[in-house]
Design brief:
Blueprint: H1 3-16, E1 21-26, E2 29-34, E3 38-39, E4 43-47, H2 50-53, E5 61-64, H3 93-99, E6 105-108, E7 122-127, E8 142-148, E9 157-159, H4 183-193, E10 199-201, H5 208-215, E11 220-224, H6 227-237
Parallel strand pairs: 4-11, 5-6, 5-10, 7-9, 10-11
Antiparallel strand pairs: 1-2, 3-4, 6-8, 7-8
Helix pairs in contact: 4-5
Bound molecules: S-adenosylmethionine (SAM).
């Protein structure tokens, strides 16, 4: 997103309370109205707590990557990037909360709270190493993804190399989030599980799910509690459709 547009967004927020939860008087009493942080013709982002905002939104399916409850230590990343710990990662309550939502859903990293999943669902694997040589890279060699309510029992293996200095989306591309998922993976999750409908990602992070949806010509809505990641996601979404 051009600097001018970002600066205007800041100005709008500072002047008009752009991302602030407002309350309004209705016949039912006081109701919280949440204004989008960012919106274009494909995607909308809300800044705030998804436990409050998600129930007010309309969508068809959830594709998300919640805090796993592992007290993730971001440490130093390639290119000297340094990140803060992830909000909500001290327990697996958020993962368990979204895994028990009633909407059709794809939940990344659900093996971290498998004991709190409802019955049913199928597992898929994201193989992050792909080649034996890459097995020496730091971090986990694979991640598990749990899906339910999409009507198919098909399991998938996503072979997408990503980790350390290897970025599946673009070589040496700077990450905006410590646990940023490749857009390539999110596109395949959306296409394989929900080929139609509006996608929601209540734990948006740096916006990979929304970027994927937009590139697929789909509509999507995201929620993120940390403003710095809302801002990073907006910057990634400001460009038109990307052919990856
Ligand atoms: C595992 S990260 C998601 C990373 C994302 N998939 C990406 O590619 O960048 C989980 C995100 O959820 C956010 N988060 C934690 N608690 C939240 C809450 N209650 N509501 C909304 N977002 C929350 C964290 O700030 C973090 O950015």
């Amino acid at each position: 997103m051009p600097r001018l547009r970002l600066a205007l967004l800041h100005l709008e927020r500072n002047l008009g309370g752009h991302n602030i939860h407002r309350t309004e008087e209705t016949p039912m009493g006081k109701e919280r109205i949440v204004s989008p942080y960012y919106s274009d013709d494909a995607v909308t982002i809300y800044h705030g707590d998804c436990r409050e905002i998600l129930p007010t939104l309309t969508f068809d399916a959830i594709v998300t990557d919640p805090p796993y409850g592992i007290s993730y230590d971001p440490g130093m990343h390639p290119n000297g990037l340094e990140f803060e710990p992830i909000v909500g990662d001290g327990s697996n309550d958020l993962g368990a909360w979204i895994a028990n939502h009633e909407a059709p859903r794809v939940i990344c990293g659900a093996d971290n709270f498998a004991h709190r999943l409802p019955p049913g669902g199928i597992w898929s694997v994201w193989d992050k190493r792909v080649s034996l040589a890459a097995d020496r890279m730091l971090g986990s060699p694979f991640e598990l993804i749990w899906a339910v309510g999409h009507g198919s029992r098909k399991k998938h293996i996503y072979r997408i190399q990503h980790g350390g200095a290897v970025n599946a989306d673009k070589a040496n591309q700077r990450r905006v989030h410590p646990t940023q998922k490749p857009v390539t993976l999110m596109k395949r999750l959306i296409e394989d599980h929900f080929p139609t409908g509006v996608i929601a990602d209540p734990f948006l992070g740096g916006g990979s799910t929304l970027r994927a949806a937009k590139d697929l010509g789909r509509h999507a809505v995201g929620i993120e509690i940390e403003e710095r990641y809302c801002e990073a996601a907006v910057a990634r979404l400001g460009q038109g459709v990307l052919a990856l």
